Amino acid sequence: MQMMTIAKVFHAVRRGPREPVAAVTLFQSFVVSALGAGAEQYTNLPDPKTYKASRALPDAHLSAQAMDDKIALLEKNNTWQVIKREKHMHVIRNKWVFEKKMNGSGSIERYKASLVAEGDDQVLGRDYNLAFTAVLDLTGGKIILAVARLWNVRATL
User: pLDDT tens digits for 58-79?
Assistant: First the structure.
């Protein structure tokens, strides 16, 4: 029996079929829009990765509407505030993330756009304390409630 080095083991694990994802070209977008594609034909289009890519697709007006809806929701919930930028401030970049939400029949139910912060440009010790708020998902909340009940924890207000 041969001894395999760690590098060989990891190399063997990393091998596998990788299928490239084809980008929608402007020509394909033109052909789809020229043929008068209905909303059901938009299901085959990939979700755009950038704002610029979303503008090049034939369903760009639907992505734009999703962005407008998201900004309106942020303003309604008072989670969006435009402030004056000062010299000492470090602005964290953001980007739009797009997704098509499908219903049970496989057709598009709605377009979703999210404005997310790109946290990869934070500097240790400078902007970590003001960047993000912890968010608890449903599973985490259930676990906390189960442990609290198991330990007979009482909350006081």
Answer: 888 888 999 999 989 888 888 8
Amino acid at 152: N
Q: Is the pTM of this model over 0.85?
A: no
Q: SS3 for 108-149, per residue?
A: EEEEEEEEEECHHHCCCCCCCCCCCCCCCCHHHHHHHHHHHH
Written as six digits, the tokens of 23 are 């980008």
Q: Of 58, 36, 74, which Cα lies nearest the Cα of 111?
A: 58
* Residue 139: both structure tokens together: 């599973």
Cβ-contact 114, 149 below 8 angstroms: no
Sequence ranges of the domains in the chain: 6-80+88-130
Residue 20 CA to residue 2 CA, distance in Å, equals 35
The encoded tokens of residue 3 equal: 């001894």
103-133: pLDDT as tens digits: 888 778 888 998 888 766 666 666 556 555 5
Q: Characterize 49-76 residue by residue with b for buried, 16 or more Cβ atoms within 10 angstroms of its Cβ, and e for exposed.
A: eeeebbebbbbeebbeebbeebeeeeee
